[in-house]
Amino acid sequence: MAEAKVLSGAGLRGQVAGQTALSTVGQAGAGLTYRGYDVRELAADAQFEEVAYLLLYGELPSKTELAAYSAKLSKLRDLPQALKEVLERIPADAHPMDVMRTGCSFLGNIEPEKDFSAQRDVTDRLLAAFPAIMCYWYRFSHDGQRIDCVSDEPSIGGHFLHLLHGKTPSELHVKVMNVSLILYAEHEFNASTFTARVCASTLSDLYSCVTAAIGSLRGPLHGGANEAAMEMIERFASAEEAVEGTLGMLARKDKIMGFGHAIYKDSDPRNEVIKGWAKKLADEVGDTVLFPVSEAIDKTMWEQKKLFPNADFYHASAYHFMGIPTKLFTPIFVCSRLTGWAAHVFEQRANNRIIRPSAEYIGVEQRKFVPIERR
Ligand SMILES: CC(=O)SCCNC(=O)CCNC(=O)[C@H](O)C(C)(C)COP(=O)(O)OP(=O)(O)OC[C@H]1O[C@@H](n2cnc3c(N)ncnc32)[C@H](O)[C@@H]1OP(=O)(O)O
Ligand SMILES: O=C([O-])CC(=O)C(=O)O
User: What does the record give as the reaction this protein catalyses (predicted)?
Assistant: First the structure.
């Protein structure tokens, strides 16, 4: 059994900053659990909507509850005209994470959370509307098309692919999107979730918590790593080139995106799952470069640094094989992690104290103010 990672030093590493009943990360013998369920079992057999319900409502739904929940989400997919107009004004070269942040924030203006008793309805609305926010902007700014924001796809993953590509997605692609959304849904006190909880602790509204969390997820050390990993993988034309390139990056002390983790010590339990699906997709498209390049980087990182791929690394090629533009990778993460963020906001609100740590002062000693004319 793997020993726990030594957690000390900067970045609040190893500090217990609160309690949660939502997930365990990196506990010996239990890689990642959502409300007690192993994420690998959920990814194998559940639908993302079931997992969202589990996180947001506390237990797995019955068949009837799931049908009602999925129907509720489907009805909430369309965007208000005012939001479409805002999205149409955002340029094509904007970062889609900025689009998500603006879309979420704007919806908070026109459909505000009037009372905390509406928190689940606001979350369900965002869960249903996020794929359209991303795709409406993308298709308008890139293809000049005003797409229909509703589809008859039963799942959120299928709905996203349908809006993006304008056609019914294959069964395999719907399955992989479903797995991906499950794997990304929740991860304890990661940076974006902690951001959401800090915001919630001031008794702010849910849209503010989610908007803040999107800002934290955007960075390449967190959710943005899947895009950065894709950009790196694409630079290599063969496994040999990838090995050489990785050795060079390590020699220059570059960070290799999609590797390492703040909590896991020698593997990320989500990796084996998404890697398996990335391989299936590679076979489907007849890939002979990207997947071997990814494996070569993976092998070199382990041999040289004992660093392992995190959830982001093989997500990069998996999404690429499904024809998803690289810049949309992190926004998909938003569509999923929203469930974890919101569940943490509910938990924070249910037992709140404002989050306000202390700082160790390392500045100059106290001194006398000097008026500007004498400086
Ligand atoms: C969904 C997610 O958010 S998962 C994370 C996604 N982020 C990435 O993939 C970005 C690349 N990875 C990283 O930057 C880091 O591994 C993080 C941010 C995920 C975790 O950071 P930390 O907890 O500070 O890492 P940790 O303490 O394990 O680092 C140990 C050593 O390995 C090095 N290291 C860690 N990850 C990497 C990496 N990807 N490439 C090269 N070196 C690395 C660190 O620089 C550190 O070296 P040092 O002791 O010489 O300074
Ligand atoms: O937990 C973390 O530090 C990063 C994260 O969100 C994840 O791995 O899903």
Answer: propanoyl-CoA + oxaloacetate + H2O = (2S,3S)-2-methylcitrate + CoA + H(+); oxaloacetate + acetyl-CoA + H2O = citrate + CoA + H(+)
